[in-house]
Amino acid sequence: MKNVFPVLAWLPKYNSKFLMSDFVAGLTVGLTAIPQAIAYATVAGLLPQYGLYSAFMGCFVYIIFGTCKDITVGPTAITALMVQSHVSGSPDYAVLCCFLSGCIILCLGLLNLGVLVRFISIPVTTGFTMAAAITIASGQINNLFGIRSTSNEFIASWYNFFTHFNETRTNDAALGITTLIILLMMRKVKDLKCGRYKMFTKYISLSRNALAVLVGILLCYLLRNDDRLPFKVSGEISPGLPAFEWPPFSTTVNGTIIPFKTMVSNLGASLISIPLISILESVAIAKAFSKGRLVDATQEMIALGVSNIMGGFVSSMPITGSFTRTAINNSSGVKTPLGGAVTGTLVLMALAFLTKTFYYIPKATLAAIIIGAMIFMVEYDRVAEIWRSKKIDFIPFLVTVLACLFWSLEYGIVAGILANMTFILYKSARPIIIISKEEINCVQVGIVEVMETLCYSSAEYLKYQIMHFTSSQAEGNEIKLIILKIQDNSSIDSSVALNILSLEKDLSMLECRLICWNWNVCAAGVIYRLHSKGNQLLKYGKSYIKLIDDLKLSPSFITCDIEGSLN
Amino acid sequence: MKNVFPVLAWLPKYNSKFLMSDFVAGLTVGLTAIPQAIAYATVAGLLPQYGLYSAFMGCFVYIIFGTCKDITVGPTAITALMVQSHVSGSPDYAVLCCFLSGCIILCLGLLNLGVLVRFISIPVTTGFTMAAAITIASGQINNLFGIRSTSNEFIASWYNFFTHFNETRTNDAALGITTLIILLMMRKVKDLKCGRYKMFTKYISLSRNALAVLVGILLCYLLRNDDRLPFKVSGEISPGLPAFEWPPFSTTVNGTIIPFKTMVSNLGASLISIPLISILESVAIAKAFSKGRLVDATQEMIALGVSNIMGGFVSSMPITGSFTRTAINNSSGVKTPLGGAVTGTLVLMALAFLTKTFYYIPKATLAAIIIGAMIFMVEYDRVAEIWRSKKIDFIPFLVTVLACLFWSLEYGIVAGILANMTFILYKSARPIIIISKEEINCVQVGIVEVMETLCYSSAEYLKYQIMHFTSSQAEGNEIKLIILKIQDNSSIDSSVALNILSLEKDLSMLECRLICWNWNVCAAGVIYRLHSKGNQLLKYGKSYIKLIDDLKLSPSFITCDIEGSLN
């Protein structure tokens, strides 16, 4: 029970000292969560309230199912971007996507299939994050300058920016750029050595997004002239809490009813990529903040899955662990997952009482917050590390970045994963095989050592290498025996076994014997079961000399004193 | 030059003794090639003459480029079936497919990418052949009984057979079934021990298809009643040789001109699967008949590519090495590839003079020939071998068979390949890691040996295994040092290196050191370049004791006499 509901483990031990810490941390996170939620709704192309709808359920659910005190589950820039291409019809797509992603994540968690994300290597992850950050930031560049734009895509956004640059609105541009610069500076404030003001500057730095929004709202409200506002704003936010109801299993676009099946097929590949990316983000964050403790990835996936499923009931878009807010939570000194309750309540209160105020949030402020976050989402150090440590790993990185930027985020990561998988497949087709030649008892022997597991893709390679070695010997110096050694513990498959049997036949035409030397029972069994004469191939022993005697390969009339005892 | 044009190597040494052997073999192959060509045109859903158009160019081209004396290039049942779904619009699709397949095969050959077929394992090949044979035979079951049918697919054919069984035409059914039984018996005739008639029965057996066609034609001609024929026939064959002209880069279907681009996109995945299957068949045959000689797969692919390209100029459908006819060629005692010239000339003469006669070939005879060939194309022994040797290899086999039968041949083989690749990927994610615990100089040491190459998919697995091992130790018995050993010759990628660095951090929280012990320069370099403190991780030496002393891990006040010298 305590494994599935970790809350049962820590809640009974809860004491009043934790309460204050959790309250302050929850509040700080909440002050970031609200502006980010509204901003990420813009990224997803949804009305601002959907961001707030997404920002509370995860906090509450994670208290019950979560294992890591720091993690904050909510809308993130990447999931917002990934859902964006589907919501043009109706926001119901985002909500359904949230619910279904939750179901998929939960299933993957229960089936322990979270290990699938291990096939997303660090170069691919880094490339994906970089491309997503660039795409998201590019999508906001027009809003930052008050230029009208309809697209959030990388190329379209910059094309729009340069072709419509003369439509820049001075007010918006000034506010946007100033906010961005101040945000970037405030991020650095907490690193300053200010002695006694350290706590103060730290919390100022942590709640900088809320401050930016507050300043934006104030400016917008105070500088308004009759009903004309000085800045472009996000528009009305419908007040009140979302209804708790079933996710939309059908929707209406332009008067046409779209059934469940069509909605699912429209969501398509996103129903695989969004859950996988969500798992990847959430588990990676859990690991980053686990400090040497083992992360229970299955439980994290259950928490994330239930969060998304419950989110589907309150009109949420897909949610996952947010790196920014988790870091804020951690540095604000949170003690237990209960901090999430404060964050969630704050979001709910904002929805209940502050929606009128949020009307005045300038778009340029939101753009500055988003761009400010994206600049630090790119892992520059990581890119340098990949380049330094192994140049070839730059290929999957570049494939991912370019395919994500110029094709689409979903297919980009798939392209990166596939590009990287070719490394594994290539390696499997080219195992390390060491072939050496020895003269034992006047018999030329080829000793073949396979250093890795053989599988069907390497079967012909092995055969080719041995045939090439055997047939390339000079005349009068022919190899009479090939001794094939494989690793302990490693088995072979039927393709390898069949190739070895056909290799034996081919070698016999060159009057050369093939012996599988000291194979473990698992690999030997495959050969043995395949062929009634299989046991002629399999030999065990300690000395090659005895083997050669047994095989009667040594010419008996020549006396040799060469000793070739090997282990 | 002799590598690219092997003809230059053997033609100067040609002598009159070879001539007779080559002539007899070429004639025997031709007598099989003609009925098979007409039959496989039916399988492809093309008019009979297209089969003959496909059957001569490969023979001539292979003389110049081929390396293996036995191989006969021409239409085969599988390529016919694979092209069948595209020709309903126009036979031009088959011809264009032939030309483009040739270009692709040639490119793959020149780029040495023929190794790609190594990823098609024996279980997948066996399953594909089996499914193709079943599909082709099923497609002919209606013709065998004289039932009208429009489909060649597995389910549709049998559905049509059972629902229209009452439409069976007695004449056709009698001819078809009798022919089939006689063909199967004649196949066995050559195994009989007839002493002096051995040569005679051998050639009767080898030319049984031609005899069956001859008997069918005679029966059909003699039993005709005015203009009513006793059997269903294939229909008119337009007489004369095909024009030598550019392949059809556009075509007209129902009065609409279809441009090149649309034709290519209609051919779609077939432009990948047909070349790959052609290479697979052709190279596999070359290997089967090479008798211990190394097969120059690149040259075989060049020969096959040029054959298909030239075939595109004479209205051929895709062609590849035919196992049946190659076997006949071999057992007829062919000496050089020149035998192909006789076969090719025979086909040309049939086209020039015999088309009127071919009008009388009963469909039931062709169906019997096809079904008779398909029964022996299924490798029953192979299936048994796979089952015996390794049960798990039955999964890709079954996936291939079922997907090919119930989905489509192209996607079926892809599904099988992907199912089998999961084995490689799973293996790469779960390398063999041996962790043992030793007490050296009173220090608890964990010795981790990785038996296979580490790559990104196994990076987290390694980390998890070590963390799990370290944190699961009883109190007072904590591991103070983890010694990580990898294989000689094997390198690591940046994901593994980054995971090892993060593992070191996590271990340091448990007050445990991590040492990469005696790593080769290639793998060590990745760690070293990544981290300025990387060389603290990397240690070299012969004795663990010295390492523990150097690291100052041993409590100096305890005197230990445990020696732990290891290589």
Automatic annotation (TrEMBL), chains A, B:
It comes from the Eukaryota. It is a multi-pass membrane protein. GO terms for biological process: transmembrane transport. Keywords: Membrane, Transmembrane, Transmembrane helix. The keyword Transmembrane helix applies. InterPro entries: SLC26A/SulP_dom (IPR011547), SLC26A/SulP_fam (IPR001902), STAS_dom_sf (IPR036513). Residues 19-400 form the SLC26A/SulP transporter domain. It holds the Pfam family Sulfate_transp. This is SLC26A/SulP transporter domain-containing protein. It comes from Glossina austeni (Savannah tsetse fly).
